What does this fold into?
Amino acid sequence: MVLPIVTYPNKILRQPTEPVTFPLSKEMKKLTLDMIDTVRKADGIGLAAPQVGKSVKLIVINLEKEGVNIFPLYNPKIKSKSLKKIEVEEGCLSVPHVFGMVKRPKKVTVQAQNFNGEIVEITDDGWIARIAQHEIDHINGKLIIDLAKKYTQGEEIVKEWKKKKYI
Ligand SMILES: [Zn+2]
It folds into this structure.
């Protein structure tokens, strides 16, 4: 089931999130499947639970177009990161019409749990690293508008939010 995507300045995007417990409840299984439907439908490359109004530590990464199976990560965190940072243009389904240059570590190791509750570690220096950092920010209440120093699109929208002191 496709869920509506919450957009900024909805306060849910800033709220602390609860850890996911295992075995997964029926609700968490359903939320996972619904988030997969939602990110596909929105043609997004990643989605975090707060973006569909749920304050839990769950993200999904969708690189199906790159030939990678879509997958959820529960309780994900950055275990280590490279000193080397790169700046990449990012957008966000919860911050429509805004794109900005965001600097992040190039390579990270993410530790998380899979669908079965097993601990998994992913080390990557490509799209997975980038998306995981963006989505982990979401479960910590952080958005691209907190990080972008330079905007490629929608800067006037961000300026308006700053004026209203949303940010
Ligand atoms: Zn986002």
